[in-house]
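Give me structure tokens for this 105-residue protein.
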Amino acid sequence: MTGGAATLAGVLLRRPRQGKYGPDGESRAIPGANPALATRGTFILWFGWFGFNGGSELKVSDIGEANSVASVFVNTNAAAAGGVVTAQPLRGARCPPAFSVRKGC
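Here you go.
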């Protein structure tokens, strides 16, 4: 409830973004996000997964625990790689061949 109330207060105080609506009230498209910042955020999230997932083992006191943490790191990296391998063909099927990072899809 607190998050919803804070969001409502923010919307009422901030108003819509400049250029979102035309003079007669029609909605205008706003260009997508910055690809460089999106990529940076993806790498930060990926790095955070290693800390969170590896930290879930809680200790590295002997060789068995160290191997367990190493397995968690490999699985975390394999999951990220699997996501990329899955997303690339799906994006390729949806976007035209002349895809540009600047134009988006």
